[in-house]
Design brief:
alpha+beta, 3-stranded antiparallel beta sheet
């Protein structure tokens, strides 16, 4: 199991589904563990009742159906699928509205969904998802990418309130994949994923405390992850390319005219 998870961490996100399917065939007795611990690129489905798109993941799936955060119904229909309590559902609706604004401001489009459910420790778990398609056919495209996607998964475990203080555990995963194909750069592909975890204890004295606290954690974490991706993936790639194939002006500086 450890070797399988190590292999999946090194697989490019766009090949995750194929690799996971192969591992499930080789290790059927570990299927539940693999499906729960391996993050896959997010998929999007349209809610026919609300006319809005929602994101598919393991956290809103039951059997082969997925619950929409907009209508609270399963697609395809499922009679006995689990639903959050009325109080948690109210918070889920509000979180989806707020997170849509956050997505538009930071991502200039894309799709987002928030799912919540009760846990066994008298608290609850919230999953915040964002998918941004950066390919040429996507909305809000800038014209630089042949293919591209950004998948963000934020899972927050919220503990029970203790004397006005609540403990939060945030696990965030970012999966990035992009491909360019033009005359100046040729075919270039870059993909990878990064995961980080954070713990915080915050006050609940203000109104809508949980939503404000979780939003603050996600905003700070996404900023850190974007900086890490910029330094690790883009920074190192640029350094290697410039070392192996330095620009013409750099070559002129290295090789003086005879």
């Amino acid at each position: 199991m450890e070797a399988a998870l190590g292999l999946m961490r090194r697989i490019p996100p766009k090949h995750t589904e194929t690799a996971l399917s192969a591992l499930l065939g080789l290790l059927p007795h570990y299927s539940s563990d693999l499906l729960s611990q391996v993050d896959q690129p997010l998929q999007v489905l349209c809610d026919v009742d609300s006319g809005k798109e929602f994101i598919l993941c393991e956290y809103n799936r039951d059997a082969d159906s997925y619950r929409s955060p907009w209508s609270n119904k399963y697609h395809p229909p499922l009679e006995d699928g689990p639903h959050p309590s009325s109080e948690l559902r109210k918070l889920e609706i509000e979180a989806n509205e707020v997170f849509s604004i956050y997505r538009d401001q930071y991502y200039e489009g894309g799709s987002s969904s928030v799912y919540m459910w009760e846990d066994e420790n008298e608290g609850f778990v919230a999953c915040f998802l964002i998918k941004k398609d950066g390919s040429k056919a996507a909305y809000g495209r800038r014209g630089y990418l042949q293919e591209g996607s950004w998948d963000a998964i934020h899972v927050i475990e919220v503990g029970p309130e203790e004397e006005g203080i609540t403990h939060y555990c945030l696990t965030s995963t970012i999966m990035l994949s992009l491909t360019t194909n033009n005359q100046s750069s040729g075919i270039f592909s870059l993909s990878g994923s990064i995961r980080r975890q954070a713990f915080m204890s915050m006050d609940l004295s203000i109104a809508d405390g949980h939503l404000c606290n979780m939003g603050k954690m996600i905003e700070e974490m996404e900023s850190k992850l974007r900086n890490s991706l910029d330094q690790v993936y883009f920074g190192k790639t640029k350094e290697m390319v410039c070392t192996l194939r330095p620009p013409a002006e750099v070559l002129q500086m290295r090789i003086p005219d005879s």
